[in-house]
Structure formats: structure tokens, C-alpha cells
UniProtKB/TrEMBL annotation:
GO terms for molecular function: acyltransferase activity, transferring groups other than amino-acyl groups. The keyword Transferase applies. It comes from Nocardioides simplex. Transmembrane segments: none annotated. Signal peptide: none annotated. InterPro entries: Acetyltransferase_Butenolide, Acyl_CoA_acyltransferase, GNAT_dom. Keywords: Transferase. This is Histone acetyltransferase HPA2-related acetyltransferase. It comes from the Bacteria.
Length: 137
């Protein structure tokens, strides 16, 4: 997309900004500590989208993976003032392209409100949701 750059360079991640987005503006991780966010970043594959004109980070996502069989796409976030520019689409497409060479059998995610975005990239409801369990909140 014109004027935007996707990157998998963890050094480009604005950790303070990402922490604010996730801990203050997300519905799934309100109150997450900076230490927890840093640990999550350090233990994941990280992705950002950046505005070419300003250099500012406008999107973030991370994937928790073993690098061979499974991945969990999480903490997908687009800056509120940058929404509507296709950043979410660019972010998800870039993440999936980066993961493709790994040959992961399954990539999961959870969303309360962005089903349409993810369906455009091949995500679908679990075929047998009763086979999956969760532990903790």
C-alpha cells in the first residue's frame, strides 16, 4: 500500500506505544503491564506497519509459534487515528506471508469484532470447536 511499510524487524517496534495500545485501548489485554508486554515481544515474532511520511508506527501484531507446526496470531492492533487505510489488511497479509515458509499446519487467532478482516485472509471458524479447551482467562 502506498505510503506504508510492513516490517518484521523487532528493533523497529515502538515498545512504549505498543504497550499503550494493548494495555489501554484493547479489549483483550486491558491493564497488561509493560514488563509482560516486553516479555511477550521478546518471545514472539513481531510485525509493524509504519507510515512512510512520518516514520510513525501505525500497526502491530505478533505471533507465538514453535516455528514448525503451530502459530497463534495475537495483539493485532491498528492505531485509532490510522484506521480505514487498509493497515489491518496489510498487517495480516504480511504476517501470513512471513509465516508461509515455515509450513505451519495451523494458525489460530481470537477476535470479538474483526471476523471479516481475517476471513479475507482464509481464516474460518473452527470446524470442531468442542475439541479445543482453554485454561485460564
Amino acid at each position: 500500500m502506498a505510503g506504508l511499510t510492513f516490517s518484521d524487524d523487532v528493533a523497529r517496534i515502538d515498545r512504549a506505544l505498543v504497550h499503550r495500545w494493548i494495555s489501554e485501548l484493547s479489549y483483550w489485554a486491558a491493564g497488561r503491564s509493560a514488563a509482560t508486554m516486553d516479555a511477550a515481544i521478546d518471545s514472539s515474532r513481531n510485525y509493524g506497519v509504519y507510515d512512510d511520511a512520518t516514520g510513525a508506527q501505525v500497526g502491530y501484531a505478533r505471533v507465538v509459534t514453535d516455528g514448525a507446526t503451530f502459530g497463534w496470531l495475537c495483539d493485532v492492533f491498528v492505531a485509532p487515528d490510522a484506521r480505514g487505510r487498509g493497515i489491518g489488511k496489510m498487517l495480516v497479509a504480511g504476517v501470513l506471508a512471513d509465516l508461509e515458509p515455515l509450513g505451519l499446519r495451523r494458525v489460530l487467532l481470537a477476535t470479538a469484532d474483526a471476523h471479516g478482516l481475517y476471513e479475507q485472509h482464509g481464516f474460518a471458524p473452527l470446524p470442531e470447536p468442542d475439541r479445543y479447551l482453554t485454561h485460564g482467562a
